[in-house]
Amino acid sequence: MESSTTDSNYNDPLGEAALAYLAGKRNLKIKVQSNIVEDDVIPVDYLFRQFNEMPVLEQQAILHCRGSVLDIGGGVGSHALELQKKGLNVTMLDVSHGCCLAAKQRGVKNIINDDFYSLTSEQGYDTLLLMMNGIGLAAAIEHLPVFFEQIKKLLNPGGQVILDSSDLRYLYMDEDSYCDLPDEQYYGEVMYTMTFRQHKTIPFEWLFIDSALLAAKAKENGFSFEKMADGHHYDYLARLQLIT
């Protein structure tokens, strides 16, 4: 995940956890708090997964990348490394300084340590890759037009956006669900905080969007939508392309 919380020396839990892992620490966990489910953890070793350890949707996404690739919110570089093995010209983008350092140590060649919305590039990309629900960086439904405008600036003519997301409606289907379906906002708009040791993000918004709504919003903003595959638990892989 990519977060835009960069104004503190102690707000990079993903990066600090990744560097600790590379330094030989094991059994590390990043604490995740949200406003819709009970507290959870991310095992740090999961960030370092190899291709055969990735979910099927991630594997398919990597196989469908082409041309010059921008891996947005690339974390510690697991996807970028696989794309390098394929011989693709890939650049990893992440706001986390620690994650970028970890990715460099692992062998990722081209890294940009910046926020997605601040990125300007004279070079366009043929594929924008947003995995681990990377479209979440849109933050909320009302912010999607800003997200779409930014990817228009980064895409080459004929380029593609490959992303995954989930329909969180399943959280409200169980009688023991954590909370009721919200009335005033889209149910996929989530507020998160992440913590590792003394490092803690400020609360940040993250968007999970169902495929039907994403298809409609893509069309409103000049993009075609293609669902490439369904996952095992209300998740899906999609491709967006500019309508010409």
CATH topology heading of the domain at 52-174 and 184-190 and 206-242: Rossmann fold
Put simply, the count of helices is 6
The averaged pLDDT comes out at: 93
Strand content: 25-35%
Question: Roughly how many Å is the radius of gyration?
Answer: 17 Å
Structure summary, number of beta strands: 12
Helix residue percentage: 10-25%
Secondary-structure element sequence? HEEHEHEHEEHEEEEHEE
The coarse overall form would be globular
What is the first-to-last residue Cα distance?
30 Å
Report the structural category. Answer: alpha/beta
Largest sheet: 7 strands, mixed
- Strand order, biggest sheet? 5-4-3-6-7-12-11
Which superfamily, in CATH terms, is the homologous superfamily of the domain at 52-174 and 184-190 and 206-242?
Vaccinia Virus protein VP39
Give the CATH class of the domain at 52-174 and 184-190 and 206-242: Alpha Beta
* Low-pLDDT residue intervals, each spanning 5 or more residues: 1-8
CATH architecture tag of the domain at 52-174 and 184-190 and 206-242: 3-Layer(aba) Sandwich
